[in-house]
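Weekly structure sync, notes
Attendees: PL (lead), two postdocs, one rotation student
Agenda item 3: pending single-chain targets
PL asked that the sequence for the first pending target be pasted directly into the notes so everyone works from the same version. It is reproduced below exactly as submitted, 193 residues in total.
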Amino acid sequence: MTSSTESVTRDWDGLTIPSAGTYLLDVAHRRVGFVARHMMVSKVRGEFADATATITVGEDPLQSSVSATIQAASINTNQTDRDAHLRSPEFLDAEAFPTLEFRSTGVKSHDGNEFVLSGELTIKGVTRPVDLEVEFEGVGRSPFGQDIFGFSATTEIDREDFGLTWNVALETGGVLVGKKIKIEIEGEAVRQA
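Predicted structure, written out during the meeting:
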């Protein structure tokens, strides 16, 4: 937490952004979710209940970085049997690969409050490059004196690129589980001392 006399914000490229420093994802204000196609006709939504992230805001905002860890066993789609299957070796294999990891490699571009953050995502021991479309939501100080900023991010991955190939062919054509998975993240980050 910064002192009351130290500026927690700064102006940059038409935005009010947080001052440089280290911020942690606030567990009380975050959602790490996903959307998958089911039977070619509907969508299943889920989330990971246990996820942490460290965001280092640079003096040059375009040099900022992110590292995140998601606990695979914390997956929740509000359906017990499906969640157990997703934790199994046919999908995430949460026992052998307990975490999913993301490490940023750079800010690819920005337009106003929208940024493209490049990085590497590791699922089930397989690492692939991904681009997150990040929207900076704003910065402020909480009633408890914490310096915070908000953001949302999305990307789409092909699950088969990460070795998540289990599927069942449908009699009507197509497959039970779609290949493309949309990842949706919402969060607040809190400045550390």
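Discussion points:
- Confidence is low (pLDDT under 50) at residues 1-5.
- DSSP finds one helix and twelve strands in the chain.
Action: rotation student to compare against the earlier draft before next sync.
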